[in-house]
Amino acid sequence: MSEQHKTKISVEIYGQTYTMVGPETSGHMRLVASMVDDKMREIHSHNRQLDTSKLSVLTAVNAVHDYLKVKERLEQLEKELKTLKD
């Protein structure tokens, strides 16, 4: 069994440094970290009294919400494509 190449980088998210490890490119991983940082700062700007823990959970909730909306849209487009092919 061959081991897949893993990228290891340090990123900063909301003032904290994290080590990210994964098969994606460093550019992809930095983009993910940047988007999480941006979302945390956006949520914080609307609710300044949130502690970091609650801010992190709300950021995760927003990310999953966005993911589910995109997934639903993809499924809808796949159904439409199938209908057009039939």
Automatic annotation (TrEMBL):
Entry annotated with the keyword NADP: no
Keyword Cell division belongs to the record: yes
Example GO biological process: division septum assembly
One Pfam family named in its UniProt record: ZapA
Purpose: Activator of cell division through the inhibition of FtsZ GTPase activity, therefore promoting FtsZ assembly into bundles of protofilaments necessary for the formation of the division Z ring. It is recruited early at mid-cell but it is not essential for cell division.
Subunit structure, as described in the record: Homodimer. Interacts with FtsZ.
NCBIfam families noted in UniProt: PRK14126.1
Name assigned to this protein: Cell division protein ZapA
